[in-house]
Amino acid sequence: MPTPVIELINVSCKFISPEGKITHALREMSLCVNEGDFCAIVGPTGCGKSTTLGMITSLSPPSTGLVKVFGKPVAGIDPNIGFVFQTDAVFPWKNVIDNIAIGPIYRGKNAAEAKKMAADWVRRVGLAGFEHHYPHQLSGGMRKRVALAQTFINEPKILLMDEPFAALDVQTRALMQGELLSLWSELKASVIFVTHDIEEAIALADRVVVLSKGPGTVKSSYDIPLARPRDVSEARYSEQFIHLSKQIWHDLKNEVQI
Amino acid sequence: MNIFSATNSSGSASEEERQAIAKAVNRRRLVIFLRIGLAVVTLTTWELAVKYGLIDPFFFSRPSDIYTQLAVWLTEGTAQGPLWRELLVTMEETVIGFFIGSLLGIFCGIALGRNKLAGDVFSIYIKIANAIPRVVLGSIFIIIFGLGMGSKVALAVVMVFFVVFGNAFQGVREADRNLIANAYILGANKRQVTFSVVIPSALTWILASLHVSFGFALVGAVVGEFLGSRHGIGLLIATAQGTFNAAGVFAAMIVLAVVALAAEYLLTALEDRLLKWRPVQFAEHGM
After folding, report:
1. pLDDT tens across A198-240, in order?
2. What is the pTM of this model?
3. What is d(CA B221, CA B50) in angstroms, rounded to the nearest whole number?
4. Which one of A106, A134, A138, A158 would you mutate to disrupt binding with B, by most B Cβ within 10 Å of its Cβ?
5. Whole domain around residue B49: which residue ranges?
6. Are A91 and B179 within 8 A, CB to CB?
7. Which residues in B lie closer than 8 A to residue A87 (C-beta atoms)?
């Protein structure tokens, strides 16, 4: 019996602007992610994909409904959560190793110990030799590696990813997807991966959830039976993959039509 | 991924590279030459215009007179004492005022910027205080603190404070939301976010304001001396004005300009040290 790690129960989310204008981001949405699951969320723009992640971190709490993490209602940022942002969120004034070491330092480790852990992660994400470079001296893919190491060093049990590879070129993206899967298989975290790219969702996830257009709610959910470990760049040419991607695109097409 | 392998290996520069280097060097020389040329032409025109009666030296003086005046101040001293002592007084007022004003400004700016409600309440009053000409306060400071150094320092502090405060406040407000969220999720508490995210990102703004505000501190000190004092470059200007000595006013202006340029140079060096993480093209444009 798998244990649910993240549960969203009938959550709705409204944003009220200072002028009193109300925007509905999510409506009566329910979602459950089990321990060790890789769940991808796809949906049209503005359907509340990112809002979902914000609710799980407690940075943007829901207006109604309940969000549970490890069976307990969310109150404050859970230390077991890791978050990879769409835009660059590495600190531009810190070099690679200091960027990666910052998590353990925030959590009370002394600087020397944190640096030692960071040095290991620098190697694991393939940035050896770039320890003392600043983010602006790195390519987009390398900055993403820093962001991944920065998150993974805290050994999160829940990994939230908000279109993390959207800004990368196609080749770099495929490479990073592969690296993400190998890091994830070591970490055994539960993942929610938000993306607008159906093929990325299928290639990475155990389950793909399709959201309807805003205010979003779960429209359909597909289990992805592709074997693991997966070769991201090869998997997308299999019959099964193409069939799934057609089905999901069909679901999504009705939502994105204007 | 070998984007850094293309560093300049000076030993084996190709013909094209050598030409490009020569071109860059030539351009630098041209810029320096044109700068000196422009100064020479301007000063010569001024001198000649006075000589041929196009400009009245009583009001506008002339380069040779200003030079003579400076030479006299440097060798024989001013009416109030040696030039270096007058300059020292003004510098002391400026630097003390600059330090107090900018430290207060940085502290208040960050404190208010981190507190949303306080920030919303106070921001309107800051704008008002920034809009009124603060030099007027000089008169009040002379009444309170007398003719000594206190009144000038106070005026310099007021001049500097609002500029630095405004920038620190804005810098804190404009700190990247994503970076702050990232820090919180990585495990930072509010104090850690302030020190490791908010202050570093506001630093660009704060340092930019320090450039401007040193000039403001100088204005505060000089105007304070102007309004009433026993020493300082401001008094020197006031005396020159009283005796219709235009050359004296210009000479004092040159002394102040040299001081301001030296301070600007030091501040740029400080900025380059503190902001070494920035991409080069931004640093070059003084952002």
Report:
1. 999 999 999 999 988 878 888 889 998 888 888 887 888 888 8
2. 0.81
3. 33
4. A106
5. 15-55
6. yes
7. 178
